[in-house]
Amino acid sequence: MKGGGSVTKYVVGGLICILFAAAVARSPVAEAAGRDEPATEIYDTIYDSIPLDEVETILQEMKEDDIEFSIRDYVNQVIRGEGELSLAGIGDYTKKHIQNQLEINKNTFIRLILYGILSGIFLNFSTSLYEKQMGETGFQIIYFLVLTIIVTGFLSAFAVAGEVLGSILDFMKALVPSFSVALTWSSGSATSMAFYQAALYAIAIAENLLVHLFLPVVQVYFLVSVFNPLSNWRFTKFALLIRSFVRIGTKVLLAVMIGHQGIQGLIMPALDGVKRSSLFKAASSIPGVGNVFGGVTDTVIGTGVLIKSAIGIGGLVAIAIICILPIIKLGVFTVIYKGLAAFSQPVTDKRIVSVFQSTADSGKLLLQIVYMTAVMFLVTLAIVIAATNKM
């Protein structure tokens, strides 16, 4: 969907089909055929007008093979009254991948601990001036060995964060048009266009600020922090400033976007409700047509609300599925380096401990950016679903 014109095309065509189906439903032949046929035709018309193919394709490409979920199948299950979400396998999936990540990072953890102990030996057992010089040289060698391992690990974590942010944005770009069409059926054009515009703003802000600003800033923070001990701690305040900028900036961005969407979610459905109420009263006053129009309209809106809610909840689940493995990877990365800083502090020079802690803080910032992005879109969808559930 490129804009309001596409939504209008879908809805106008659908209404013509629905009114025709209602007219047929009033005939004796239709009444003999059964009473569920008009509702089925209304559902088919609304469902066929919502473009879910791209959403489904992108979801299947992004999610892990271990998790079986399809938005299209979930919508069909909801219509049949079988749309129960089962989270039975999520716990086992999470536990398995946490164990896998711990196993993958176990050797790195052991190597870095040994390097830290060795650096402490070089510095603490040097008594004479010559031995101190040799010890400092040995420490510098170990320090750069540690940096090589840490930089490699951070770049991998950085790639994970960038990839999952791109996946979330690609999925939302596909979901927003489909969800907007469903909102047009359930609530009205004002609510649909308000969500469409707000979602596009959120995607643009996330892409330009979170991906192209905050992620590179985290990279700068990591480089400044790990080389800060070699400069006699001259950039400590600068590193703290960068970290505060990312932490506070993401929180402010999240609050602004959720607040904006919350206001839209309160106002626009009420505006559409007033317009719909006026239209219903005018149509109901027409002799011979009012009852038919009212019955068909209730069915259309009820079906639209059901399909809209199913698509929205399916989108919530899909975002969670896309994010779960990257969040596990970033979380394990952060915990491992925090553990390294804690266990190595008694036996390691404070410069090595500082590098471990700075790497953990960098991983935490990456995790916060991914988490904030996911929450921003999850809460946006949840607000719209809740605000537009009234018929």
Percent of residues in helices: over 70%
Uncertain residue segments: 1-38
Structural class: mainly alpha
Largest sheet, in brief, is: none
- Please count the helical segments: 11
Measured distance between first and last alpha carbons:
25 Å
Question: How does this structure look, described?
Answer:
By secondary structure, this protein is mainly alpha-helical. The chain is 86% helix and 0% strand. The longest helix is centred in the middle third of the chain and has 58 residues, at 129-186. The chain is elongated and about 85 Å long. The model is unreliable at 1-38 (pLDDT under 50).
Descriptive keywords:
elongated, 86% helix, 391 residues
In brief, what are we looking at here?
The protein is built from eleven helices and no strands. By secondary structure, the protein is mainly α. The longest helix is centred in the middle third of the chain and has 58 residues, at 129-186.
Topology summary:
Blueprint: H1 4-25, H2 28-33, H3 37-49, H4 53-62, H5 71-79, H6 88-124, H7 129-186, H8 189-227, H9 236-284, H10 290-344, H11 350-387
